[in-house]
Amino acid sequence: MLIGDEERERAGARLGDHFARGRLTLDELEQRVARALNARTRGDLRKAFVGLPGGSRPPIVETVARGALLVLATCAWFAVTLVLLFVLLLALVLEGPSFLLLAFAVAWVVPTQLLVRRWRRAFPRRA
Q1: How far is the C-alpha of 92 from the C-alpha of 76, rounded, in Å?
Q2: Does a structural domain hold residue 127?
Q3: 13-35 b/e with 16+ CB inside 10 Å = b?
Q4: Mean pLDDT across the stretch 104-123?
């Protein structure tokens, strides 16, 4: 997700706090602030906080909200999948194979791919 100037400035201020508490040298502060000011995404911004307490993880409320939204989206996907499957089976029984098979595939594959991308972003594979 892209970030704005306000988020970059807040990150710079937080890095200044870490410097004031003795967690960073002046050189590290300069490098990390430059990285934060050049960041385009939240992932880029998090890289400026690697190794600092509370820096590499989003706040707990944001994490819980994102997780809840992901679970809700998964439940909605499951419900849509069941409805599409029912409609497909009904159409196959009443009309036989037709253009509906292609429509079903598109209507199911697109949201499935979007959901898979979200899950992979939320839980990246660790090497």
Answers
A1: 24
A2: no
A3: ebbeebbeeeebeeeebeebbeb
A4: 85
Whether 21 is covered by a domain: the verdict is yes
**Is position 53 within any domain?**
no
Per the DSSP assignment, residues forming a β-bridge with 2 are: 41
Residue type, 110: V
Mean pLDDT for the chain overall: 84
Both 64 and 106 in one domain: the answer is yes
Task: Please tell me the pTM assigned to this model.
Answer: 0.47
How far is residue 92's CA from residue 58's CA, in Å, rounded to a whole number? 48
Q: Domain range for residue 30?
A: 5-47
**CA separation (Å) from 15 to 5, 10, 121?**
15, 9, 26
Q: What percent of the chain has pLDDT over 90?
A: 24
Whether residue 103 sits in one domain with residue 64: yes
